[in-house]
Each structure stands twice: as C-alpha cells, then as structure tokens.
Amino acid sequence: MEVKIEKGNGEVTAYLIGRLDTPASQEIAPTMNALAEDASGTVILDCTDLSYISSSGLRIFITLRKAAAEKGGRIIVRNITHEIRSVFMMTGFLNLFEIQ
C-alpha cells in the first residue's frame, strides 16, 4: 500500500495505491494521522488505484471524516472503482462522504 500526498490550492490530495487491508492500514496510519491534522480544509482521497478496502481501511476513512467535521473541513472521496463503491454502499459510507 502506498499513499502519495499533494498539497496545493488550499487542498490536500492523498492518492491511495494498492490494497487497504489491515496490515496496510497500520502501515499508513502515521500518514493518515497527519492528514487528519490538515482536515480543517479540503482533503481529497483519490481512490483511482485503490483495489481493495477492508474494515480497517474503512475505519481510516471514518476517522478522517470525524476529524474534518470537528475542524470544519471536508473529505471528498474521488474516483472509486465499482468494487469499492459496492463496499461503500453495503456499509452506508456512500451517505457519509462526498463522492466524486
């Protein structure tokens, strides 16, 4: 699992690449915690290259959402695949996030 961060135009974009399973969630936790600190603005989670998400991965998304809500920011989830969209639909995450 890889996360690439880009900052610009008042936004932070995190490109999620690979499988976001339990071991990967633990591996990227420090990066995602840093994103939560920047959650007062707009944080974009680009899922173009995200091939899988587990419950641990979903927990990272919801933690970021909570941090953004507390700081007046917003989380945008962009470019999810059909498989990831299905997981979001089954878990109710489609209603929790702005999906682009």
Protein architecture, described:
This protein has helices at about 20-35, 55-70, 80-90; strands spanning about 1-10, 10-20, 40-55, 75-80, 100. The chain is an alpha/beta fold and about 100 residues long. It has one domain (about 1-100): 2-Layer Sandwich (Transcription Regulator spoIIAA), CATH 3.30.750. Strands 1-2-3-4-5 form a 5-stranded mixed β-sheet. β2, α1 (about 20-35) and β3 (about 40-55) form a beta-alpha-beta unit. It is globular and about 30 Å long. The protein starts with a strand and ends with a strand.
List keywords for this structure.
single chain, 100 residues, alpha/beta, Transcription Regulator spoIIAA, five-stranded mixed beta sheet, 3 helices, 36% strand, globular
Structural topology:
Blueprint: E1 2-8, E2 11-20, H1 22-37, E3 42-53, H2 55-71, E4 74-78, H3 82-91, E5 98-99
Parallel strand pairs: 2-3, 3-4, 4-5
Antiparallel strand pairs: 1-2
Helix pairs in contact: 1-2
Overall domain count: 1
Share in helix: 40-55%
CATH class: Alpha Beta
Through-space gap between termini = 22 Å
Mean pLDDT: 95
Name the structural class: alpha/beta
CATH topology: Transcription Regulator spoIIAA
- Sequence of secondary-structure elements: EEHEHEHE
**Main sheet attributes: strand count, strand direction, barrel closure:** 5 strands, mixed
Instruction: Specify the overall morphology.
Output: globular
- Please, what is the CATH homologous superfamily? STAS domain
Low-confidence stretches: none
